[in-house]
Specification:
Largest sheet: 7 strands, mixed
CATH superfamily: Metallo-dependent phosphatases
CATH architecture: 4-Layer Sandwich
Strand order of the largest sheet: 4-3-2-1-12-13-14
Number of strands: 14
Low-confidence stretches: none
CATH class: Alpha Beta
CATH topology: Purple Acid Phosphatase, chain A, domain 2
Mean pLDDT: 96
Structural class: alpha/beta
Radius of gyration: 15 Å
Number of domains: 1
Number of helices: 4
Distance between the termini: 20 Å
Helix content: 10-25%
Order of helices and strands: EHEHEHEEEHEEEEEEEE
Strand content: 35-45%
């Protein structure tokens, strides 16, 4: 199975559209939080027709309206702060926060663990567990002092057959290129 992995949208619907168009033929989508506004749920539900799992981040401020909007899409599931399941026989987990996901991965309980939050693209290993941080759809990162840094708008596609992931960037013109 091929699974699209996205995180940290932060209302950037302009970058989200090319991501969803590019991943339309994947088997499922996992969103790692920070949608921000409830209207982003409509874009996910309308532009991606296959199963969607959403875990909450620290910038999903109106959970009541996010949940209300999600009820309109049978294929979109809100999974709280943590999700664990199987894709193609692989045990996979998802959490927004990198500082929680990394210790979870170290347990060795999962084949792959997806996380976001720090707005830094990363694919690596923690023991036997593949770590996938797709980076921010938003296209920015923030230092502890609040300074903004432009980083690529990015996402990943996980392949359960090989337990590997590949990264992609949304370029300024809206096209998608390999990381």
């Amino acid at each position: 199975m091929r699974i699209a992995v996205i995180s940290d949208i932060h209302d950037n619907v302009w970058k989200l559209s090319p991501v969803l168009a590019f991943v339309h033929d994947t088997d499922a989508l996992v969103c790692l939080g920070d949608l921000c506004s409830p209207f982003v749920v409509h874009q996910l539900g309308r532009e991606y027709a296959r199963p969607i799992h959403v875990v909450f981040g620290n910038n999903d401020g109106d959970l009541f309206r996010i949940a209300a909007n999600a009820r309109g899409y049978e294929h979109l599931k809100l999974d709280g702060e943590f999700w664990s399941g199987e894709f193609g026989g692989r045990r996979v987990a998802a959490h927004h926060f990198d500082n929680i996901a990394r210790p979870l991965a170290a347990s060795g309980d999962w084949d792959a663990l997806f996380f976001g939050h720090n707005h830094r693209f990363h694919i690596g290993q923690a023991g036997r567990t593949l770590l996938v941080n797709p980076g921010p759809v938003m296209g920015a990162a923030f230092a502890a002092n609040g300074a903004r840094e432009d980083v690529p708008s990015s996402f990943a596609i996980y392949d359960s057959a090989t337990n590997t992931a590949a990264g992609y960037q949304v370029l300024a013109d809206g096209t998608v290129a390999p990381w």
